[in-house]
């Protein structure tokens, strides 16, 4: 289908967006060559069979990157546990913890998790790649789309080289340009599934050259930006272009923006971000490669030093191999010096190793690995354990909390929107009345949240020590504290949430127990007064009076 004027404008927008991003490609290439060789194809084409690390002498920067990104993924999405959940946005409804509401939210969570971890979804692989892009380059681009058969959801992570995006007034990414190459065979097959109008030029190549590459582009943007006059119930439009042949493959109104762009530290005045790790790590990584090469060279010279030989005295060359023989002219006078001796250069490879260890420590700090170890509380007092957890939370909060919102929240929201639209979560009639027409939020359960909850437990223990002192000096001050709420917060650090009763149910039982204690106390007081009254009553007539004390 020929391009319309509005399509030419979209392509012009894309060209401008990619042109503005071009200066970043050189930087990302350097970052990738030193930390992420598998992604080092921003400014050059890479071959699957090439040696991606031929320019490196040390793998330590790669290992630090890998450890940090793996840590990030394991904290955000720990395997073997339900790491996310749903909760009402309304705080009042959230506190009530109505059983049917909680069950409905748990059922929805289970359905969403099942879609994500389906064998065909590609979720785990996509998230692993996205974690590494996010930690290394400060951003990652992925997509969440339903299968053409509408029986599942598919996740993909896209190369930053091929993507450029625009923001709206609120700083949210609302336009994505993604370039890609497709073989003739694949383009025709995908076009048949999606109902595209693939040009005759492409179809003619199917028999003779089915593996020829066609430059294509996918664009998602607000419908108002593409065609303001177009009336539709959808908010977004999805457009596919054959750039090579300047053809419009297809256009479709869609209900969701299927791309998620997770960004770490935004560059001022730009829609692109940067990784704070790499800012500190890149200079040391470059220095380390040079240093390791020098240390290796110095070590080689120390093991096999260069030789000085008296040329006139050597017959047949020098053989420095094991059991090798070097023939010397018998007429040579050894008083003139050794025929063959090592050249002493005065090198100290061990000093280079000290410098290398310093570089390791710098890289460890650059990737926050010296701050992100979970605290060990063995043989620690409550106060000491609390300090360790507070330090861990302070160090990890700037990293983990934004990542939970970006790395988890973005794709989860798209997943839930698609699952709702495709009917995987049932209809509105299936929901409890309290949830109809209400928003829900995602909550997370991961090691970071465990540490935060445990910090509350340690705070409770420390508070108990203060309360013990206060109760002995001025007991009435204990009324200043909400002991029930403090206990509920503290117990979550050592016990799962489902061990706690509903707030209303617990308060009702506590009230009943307090009333019972009050009644028993009152009964005890009545019995005591009765006994006192009997003791103070005058003796019965005829009874002997007790002697006064």
Q: Quick one: how many beta strands?
A: 16
| Uncertain spans | 542-549
* Helical run tally: 14
Mean pLDDT: 85
Q: Can you give the helix content as a percent range? A: 40-55%
What does the overall shape look like? flat
Straight-line N-to-C gap: 120 Å
Tell me the series of helices and strands, N- to C-terminal: HHEHHHEEEEHHEHEEEEEHEEEEHHEHHH
Structural class: alpha+beta
Mind summarizing the main beta sheet? Answer: 5 strands, antiparallel
The strands making up the biggest β-sheet line up spatially as 4-5-6-7-8
Radius of gyration: 36 Å
Beta percentage is 15-25%
Describe this structure in words.
Helix content is 48%, strand content 15%. Mean pLDDT is 85; it is low at 542-549. It has a domain at 5-45 and 115-275. The strands form 6 sheets. Strands 4-5-6-7-8 form a 5-stranded antiparallel β-sheet. A 3-stranded antiparallel β-sheet has the order 3-2-9. A two-stranded antiparallel sheet has the order 1-16. With 549 residues, it is α+β, with helices and mostly antiparallel strands. The chain is flat and about 145 Å long. The protein starts with a helix and ends in a 13-residue tail after the last helix. α2 (60-76) crosses α5 (123-137) and α9 (276-303) packs antiparallel against α10.
Gist?
The chain has helices at residues 5-35, 60-76, 91-96, 99-116, 123-137, 184-194, 200-204, 223-226, 276-303, 349-366, 382-421, 447-473, 483-491, 503-536; strands spanning 84-88, 139-146, 153-158, 163-167, 173-183, 213-222, 236-242, 247-254, 259-263, 265-266, 273-274, 307-309, 314-315, 327-328, 340-342, 440-444. With 549 residues, the chain is α+β, with helices and mostly antiparallel strands.
């Amino acid at each position: 289908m020929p391009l319309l004027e509005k399509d030419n404008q979209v392509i012009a927008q894309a060209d401008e967006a990619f042109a503005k991003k071009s200066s970043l490609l050189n930087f990302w290439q350097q970052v990738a060559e030193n930390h992420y060789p598998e992604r080092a194809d921003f400014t050059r084409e890479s071959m699957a069979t090439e040696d991606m690390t031929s320019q490196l002498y040390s793998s330590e920067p790669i290992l630090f990157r890998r450890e940090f990104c793996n840590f990030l993924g394991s904290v955000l999405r720990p395997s073997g546990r339900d790491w996310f959940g749903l909760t009402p946005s309304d705080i009042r409804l959230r506190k009530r913890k109505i059983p049917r509401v909680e069950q409905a939210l748990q059922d929805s969570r289970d359905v969403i998790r099942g879609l994500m971890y389906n064998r065909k979804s590609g979720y785990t692989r996509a998230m692993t790649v996205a974690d590494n892009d996010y930690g290394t380059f400060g951003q990652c681009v992925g997509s969440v789309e339903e299968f053409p058969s509408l029986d599942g959801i598919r996740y993909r992570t896209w190369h930053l080289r091929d993507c450029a995006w625009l923001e709206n007034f609120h700083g949210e990414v609302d336009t994505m340009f993604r370039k890609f190459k497709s073989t003739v065979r694949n383009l025709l097959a995908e076009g048949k599934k999606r109902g595209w109008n693939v040009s005759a030029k492409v179809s003619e190549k199917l028999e003779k050259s089915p593996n020829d590459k066609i430059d294509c582009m996918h664009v998602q943007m607000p419908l108002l930006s593409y065609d303001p006059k177009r009336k539709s119930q959808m908010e977004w439009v999805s457009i596919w272009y054959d750039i090579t042949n300047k053809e419009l493959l297809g256009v479709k109104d869609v209900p969701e923006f299927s791309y998620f762009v997770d960004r770490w530290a935004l560059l001022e005045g730009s829609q692109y971000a940067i990784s704070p790790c790499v800012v500190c790590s890149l200079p040391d990584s470059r220095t380390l490669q040079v240093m390791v090469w020098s240390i290796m060279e110095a070590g080689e010279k120390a093991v096999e030093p260069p030789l000085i030989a008296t040329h006139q005295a050597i017959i047949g060359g020098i053989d420095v191999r094991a059991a090798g023989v070097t023939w010397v002219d018998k007429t040579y006078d050894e008083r003139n010096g050794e025929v063959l001796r090592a050249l002493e250069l005065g090198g100290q490879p061990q000093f280079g190793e000290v410098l290398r260890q310093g570089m390791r420590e710098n890289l460890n700090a650059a990737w926050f690995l010296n701050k992100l170890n979970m605290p060990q509380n063995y043989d620690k007092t409550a106060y000491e354990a609390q300090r360790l957890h507070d330090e861990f939370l302070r160090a990890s909060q700037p990293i983990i909390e934004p990542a939970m919102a970006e790395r988890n929240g973005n794709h989860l929201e798209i997943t839930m929107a698609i699952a709702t639209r495709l009917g995987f979560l049932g209809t509105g009639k299936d929901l409890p009345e309290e949830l109809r027409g209400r928003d829900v939020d995602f909550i997370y359960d991961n090691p970071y949240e465990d540490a935060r909850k445990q910090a509350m437990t340690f705070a409770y223990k420390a508070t108990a020590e203060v309360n013990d002192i206060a109760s002995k000096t001025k007991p009435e001050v204990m009324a200043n504290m909400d002991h029930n709420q403090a206990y509920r917060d503290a117990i979550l650090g050592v016990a799962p949430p489902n061990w706690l009763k509903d707030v209303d149910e617990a308060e009702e039982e506590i009230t009943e127990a307090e009333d019972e204690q009050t009644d028993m106390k009152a009964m005890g007081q009545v019995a005591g007064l009765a006994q006192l009254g009997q003791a103070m009553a005058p003796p019965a007539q005829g009874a002997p009076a007790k002697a006064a004390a």
